[in-house]
């Protein structure tokens, strides 16, 4: 297998890294993340102009990429620079429009790709604990269309998004796989209450209350009660994006730690000359390369039709970056010493982001258990079944 990116992807990565190095240095990033908006509209527009958002979608829908490796390249660059702009929301909502949207709904893609429209993914609920099927928010059909009632929690940049993709139950019980529907909700919808708050790793999130939010019939994405499969597919793209972002952040933390070992001196020699520290750094490098392999595998699998192989590859990648990202954060701080915990050193912010990525869309324990369950289902499948 050829693990080299195409020339177009390498050029995109180079352009993004140069642009972000110039416009999203650590101090600028802190300023954007701590602002009332939680990100920079100017930087987001610049990323859109460079094609970072367009690369997430196929040419047939106004983009110029859309493959798993395109998604991976973009989010790895974002991870290298701790970008807080809402590209994950654009990816998930845009993919939802492509997979299940009507021609009228898909018209929103142009605004997403240009950066003029921001979007957020609103699925998690208080107490849902990573379970995709645990949806308590309800949608009731009426003469005007649909009425939504419920709450969503920790929606990234949900307090400023122009468009929200909200999951709600139109049939069945809170844990049923069937009966879930997806709705496009304008950020200005009457009855939608958004309470924004800061995140520990920078940027903002929001708690959403949907109090009898009235939507038209055209707000439904796909078929009523059949949103579970789309939910699973979009979740796969989120896992790939976060795994790639984590890999980019790991690479920077690793490089900064290696540079520190080469320059920090004790007893008149660089501390990197001490064999015990060399062994720890070598182990860290091997772990990062293992994570890279898992991300490559996930990027190759995400475009496949629904299958156990696809889900296993994505679970394995998220489990790997969860475990290894936490290890990189801990070891990098240990090898730096006390300075590694300080606000002024960029490493501490990379460490926070690496740890928090583990808790988005399922932590390592969740994905290990799911990988085991998928492996068992694969073993139990008939020999001639498509898995």
TrEMBL record:
<feature type="domain" description="Acyl-CoA oxidase/dehydrogenase middle">
    <location>
        <begin position="125"/>
        <end position="199"/>
    </location>
</feature>
<dbReference type="InterPro" id="IPR046373">
    <property type="entry name" value="Acyl-CoA_Oxase/DH_mid-dom_sf"/>
</dbReference>
<dbReference type="GO" id="GO:0003995">
    <property type="term" value="F:acyl-CoA dehydrogenase activity"/>
</dbReference>
<keyword id="KW-0560">Oxidoreductase</keyword>
<dbReference type="InterPro" id="IPR036250">
    <property type="entry name" value="AcylCo_DH-like_C"/>
</dbReference>
<dbReference type="Pfam" id="PF00441">
    <property type="entry name" value="Acyl-CoA_dh_1"/>
</dbReference>
<dbReference type="Pfam" id="PF02770">
    <property type="entry name" value="Acyl-CoA_dh_M"/>
</dbReference>
<dbReference type="InterPro" id="IPR009100">
    <property type="entry name" value="AcylCoA_DH/oxidase_NM_dom_sf"/>
</dbReference>
<dbReference type="InterPro" id="IPR013786">
    <property type="entry name" value="AcylCoA_DH/ox_N"/>
</dbReference>
<comment type="similarity">
    <text>Belongs to the acyl-CoA dehydrogenase family.</text>
</comment>
<keyword id="KW-0285">Flavoprotein</keyword>
<feature type="domain" description="Acyl-CoA dehydrogenase/oxidase C-terminal">
    <location>
        <begin position="240"/>
        <end position="353"/>
    </location>
</feature>
<dbReference type="Pfam" id="PF02771">
    <property type="entry name" value="Acyl-CoA_dh_N"/>
</dbReference>
<feature type="domain" description="Acyl-CoA dehydrogenase/oxidase N-terminal">
    <location>
        <begin position="6"/>
        <end position="116"/>
    </location>
</feature>
<dbReference type="InterPro" id="IPR009075">
    <property type="entry name" value="AcylCo_DH/oxidase_C"/>
</dbReference>
<keyword id="KW-0274">FAD</keyword>
<dbReference type="InterPro" id="IPR037069">
    <property type="entry name" value="AcylCoA_DH/ox_N_sf"/>
</dbReference>
<dbReference type="GO" id="GO:0050660">
    <property type="term" value="F:flavin adenine dinucleotide binding"/>
</dbReference>
<dbReference type="InterPro" id="IPR006091">
    <property type="entry name" value="Acyl-CoA_Oxase/DH_mid-dom"/>
</dbReference>
<protein>
    <submittedName>
        <fullName>Alkylation response protein AidB-like acyl-CoA dehydrogenase</fullName>
    </submittedName>
</protein>
